[in-house]
Amino acid sequence: MNLTLPPLSLYIHIPWCVKKCPYCDFNSHALPVDIDAESNEVAYIEALLQDLSIEAVLSDGREIESIFIGGGTPSLFSATAITRLLDGVRTLTQLKPQAEITLEANPGAADAAFFTGYRQAGVNRLSIGVQSFNDEHLHSIGRIHSAQQALDAFKLAAEAGFHNINLDLMYGLPGQSVSRAMDDLKQAIALKPQHLSWYQLTIEPNTLFSSQPPASLPSHEKLAEISDAGIALLEEHGFKQYEISAFATEEHQCRHNVNYWQFGDYIGIGAGAHGKLTSPDGHISRRRKQRSPAAYVESIHSGDVLSSENRLQDEDLVLEFMMNVLRLNHGVSAATFEQRTGLSLQAIQPRLLHARRAGLMEQNPEVLRATEHGRRFLNNLLMMFS
Length: 386
Known about the structure:
By secondary structure, the chain is an alpha/beta fold. The protein has helices at residues 37-57, 79-92, 115-121, 135-140, 147-159, 178-191, 208-211, 220-236, 255-261, 293-302, 314-325, 334-341, 349-357, 372-376, 378-383; strands spanning 8-14, 16-17, 29-30, 64-71, 95-105, 125-131, 165-171, 195-200, 240-243, 246-248, 265-270, 274-278, 284-289, 306-311, 332-333, 367-368. The chain has two domains: 8-259, TIM Barrel; 314-386, Arc Repressor Mutant, subunit A. Strand 7, helix 6 (178-191) and strand 8 (195-200) form a beta-alpha-beta unit.
């Protein structure tokens, strides 16, 4: 079975935040107060572009379909830095003319003032980390902005010319009732964003919340009630659920994330960034960069930027493929499995039959798609492919 080289995206990681949130398990670091912001930006952007110059050689000349600048808090970087970054990307790669370019931003501080500059640099999609419009709940999860600052950030983004804005919202917050969770969604809907990422607060290992769990987290029954009510509310207002935690108005699905969930390829640059690349000879590899920002920048000069690289074996491919595509409401065609993994679908037929008999996957043999029940109990479904 021959692989088909999938679409290629670019993920860029900027690892600094004003403050590390207690629930966050991403590779993020509080920005030292004594650091010179301009010098730090220059050194890090230079490292990113040198990193990309190496990775671009491995992409087999494919166009970059989308860029996602995540963190951390990328909006801590100036518009000048982001302009230098994207100009460098255009020089080093074949960037698709209408590529989706997303930048994550947090409300508050001074970063909203950069929005106009980001738009001029070529960023055409903004993702704002609101999490809640309730000051009490924001405080309970360690956020440093207020509800008013979140509203102001959205207004400034719209005024800067962004017509594709995502809002990140969480539910299942300490002490949160169903009505308060719906109030958050109603406030978000009233702003008329094009996309909402709405996901449950989870307690991840190696976070402050894992060692000091917050009190009064909603019960499993309450979480299910919030989820059902929220999905119905979003549907009522024209937000179509296309992935477990992603809702979009017409034609505004996040193209970068869809490529990821469809087991596409992506280059990862930046401290702690991960990448997935398919080679012309059919091998699929995971590449990971040094996690420490200082070690990452230093490693660029020493030529040792990778912290690890491994070629995915058959069983890894099966599980990783399913972990991604079964999150999508519409799944993927059965043929995509063979195109993206190089494996025969016949090899997993017994497991597919088991999942379908259990009511966790749809019966249509032409589609790999979880049922609504299967998406709700996704971990149970994935165990069948592990």
